Amino acid sequence: MAACVSMSSGCQLKGDVLGSSEDSLSPHRQERHSEFAVLSALKDMPRARCRRKGRRQRHINSRAARALTQTRTPPPPSLQEPAMPTALRELYMLSGMPEGFVPYQAQHFILQTMQRCLEQNAFQFAQKWLVSESQALGWTCPEALELHIFFRVLAKQQRKVRSDTFQEICRTVKDWQDSISNIRHAAVHRLAQDRSLLIEMSHAAVGFSRDLGASSSAAKFHRLSSFLKKVLPKSEPRGFQPTHDVVSQASSQKARLVHLIDRLRLLPRPIKKVLLLVEEEFTLGVQHFLQDEFPMRLNAKEES
User: What is the average per-residue pLDDT within 26-54?
Assistant: First the structure.
C-alpha cells in the first residue's frame, strides 16, 4: 500500500514539475515533454504482468516457428535465384554505371549458353529437313552450324521443298531472323548487353525454338527469361536500342563497354575489391542456374 502511495505521489510530482515548465515551451516541445512524463511514470510501475505477457508471446512465437520449419521444404538449388545484391547496385550507382548494367562475365555466360542451345535446335531441324544441304555445308555437329547462314539456307530451300509443314515453319521462323542473329553476333563479338536486351533476346529464343519444334528448349528459355527478370534489377530507359544494323551496333556497344570499364578502373582500390567479390558471387549463381537448365551434351538428341 505504501509502495502504491509513493509511486502515485512520485508520478504526480513528475507531472507537476513538467507541467510547470510546459507553459513556457513551444507546442512541439510540450508534446515531447508529455511523452517523457508518460514514459517516466511507466518505468515505476510493476513489471510482473509485462514479463508474463512477454514469456507467453515468446512461447507462441517459438511454436509457430517450429511448425513453419517442419512444414516448409527448401526449394531446389536451381530455383534459388541469386538476386542482384543491394551492395552491387549501390556500387554501380556510385561508379556511375547505369541501373540495368549486368556484370560482364555473367552476361557473357548467358549469351554463350543461348547461342549454343539455339545452334543445337537449328542443327536438329536441319538434320530432319535439310540432310543433303547439311552434308554439303559440313554441318556435322551443332558447333559447325552458324545461325546467320542457317537463315540463308532456310530462305533458299523454302522455294524448293514442297511441304506445307516446311513452308509454314519457314514463314514463322523468318520473323526471328534479326533477333536471333543479334544473339549470335553479341555472343561472338562479346558485346555488352543490359537487362532489357537480355530479356528481349530470351523471348526471341523462346519463339525461335518453339517454331522449330524444340519444345523442351523453348521451355528452358522461358525459365531463363523468368530467371533474368527476378535476379536483375529493373532499369531506366536504356541509352542504346537494339538495331538491325549489326555493324553499327557492334561499334557503338564496344565504345560503350570501353567507357564503362574505364569507369570501373578509376574506382578506389578498396571499393574495386569489394565490387569484384560481389560480382563474382552473383556470376557464380548465374552460372549454376545455366548449368542446371542447359547442361553440356556430347551428343545432340532430337527435342520432343
Answer: 50
- What is the pLDDT, as a whole number, of residue 224? 96
C-alpha cell recorded at residue 240: 542504346
CA–CA distance, 72 with 286 (Å, rounded to integer): 25
- As for how many domains the chain has, the answer is 2
- 177 alpha carbon, distance to own chain's centre: 26
The three-class DSSP label of residue 101 is: strand
Cα(213)–Cα(124) distance, rounded to whole angstroms?
10
Mean pLDDT, rounded, for 34-62: 50
Residue 42 lies in a domain: yes
CA–CA distance, 243 with 275 (Å, rounded to integer): 31
30: domain range? 1-46
Distance, in Å, from the CA atom of 231 to the CA atom of 284, rounded to the nearest integer, reads 13
| Residues 39 and 111 placed together within one structural domain of the fold | no
User: How do the residues of the chain divide into helix, strand and coil, expressed in percent and rounded to 5?
Assistant: 75, 0, 25
What φ, ψ does residue 84 adopt, rounded to 5°?
Answer: -60, 120
